[in-house]
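2024-03-11 09:14:02 INFO queue: dequeued item Cobalt-precorrin-5B C(1)-methyltransferase, len=382
2024-03-11 09:14:02 INFO validating residues
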Amino acid sequence: MGEGLIIQVKRSKHRGELRSGFTTGACAAAASRAAVHCLLTAELIDQVVITLPNKELASFQLCRLERTPEGVLASVIKDGGDDPDCTHGIEIQCLASWHSQPGIHLDGGVGVAKVTLPGLELPVGMAAINPVPRQNIHDMATAEWLACQPEQHFQPGLKLEIRVPEGEECAKQTISERLGLIGGISILGTRGTVKPYSTSAFSASVRQSVQVASANQLNHVVLTTGSRSERSAMEMLPQLNSMAFIQAGDFVGVGLRAAKRYHVDKVTVVAMIGKLGKMVAGHMMTHVSGHAINFSLLADIAAQHGADQTLCELIANANTGRHVLNLVSEHFPDRNHHTFNMYLQDLCCHAAGHATDYVADKVMIEFRLIDFDGCLLAQYPS
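2024-03-11 09:14:37 INFO prediction written
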């Protein structure tokens, strides 16, 4: 079931040190591995070890493991660590059963949302199990399949159904329905572990990172909104010291104010369309529970650059920032098209203008928009 260094969620012995937890995706992968193990071997176990997407090993205590007429049902209780979200403490289940077709067939059951609107990482109609946890579940089930003898394979394939009994109720505390995620929660997580993103603790870390950069005579810092944008920023700005790159997450505003306070000359903000879409309207704190994207404003800016009425109406009624970018990209498949370039550059311009006001014009501000592969789409100043 796995060897090597195994991490477990533990409460810190030191007051003030926040405890990490696990994502819904990691919990689903753990439940899936346990269910498949029991289906193949008939062995009843009480804990399971998986490899997380970040390549660490993690041990999970099982909440249940039982054989049913439908298959084997396994589950774990999600532990979100300190400062948990609404999914902390809920049961994440997997029902594993045989499938007549080869391969692993994954779907969502009760409490897992269905995608009903475009603009997300998944197509309409699919269960909201995001690509990274989807792959993690698949990998853990495959590991069990390959560990067994062929005579233990009673059918050519496996069916896995992820269930979250409290998912629909839990989703009422999120904006999932607004994004077209209906019937439950999404199964998420790009690392497998949850860093405790306490508002006060995380904003303090952003502020402190800027202070440290300034104290080390770095007059140019780069605020990124996540790990993908940070990787892209480092590739675009290889001349900068690694200390200059600060993952600000939803707290770009905190980083900007800190840059002003600690006399940093220049800030480059590197973001994808979802966060940028909020900053275009002047919202420098971009958490999902805060301000939504002003799609009418994005449509008005498109109109100013000659976009036709059909496209503007589609933008005004878009579902997410990703959806806006998809619409514009489909309308202008040539990324060198003048309107495409000027529109995205103007979004950066609007965000940079608001950011400059945010720091009372005391810091030089640059914005760069990247796509979901980390490629530069637009920047201001150009």
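2024-03-11 09:14:37 INFO annotate: DSSP finds eleven helices and 19 strands in the chain.
2024-03-11 09:14:38 INFO item closed
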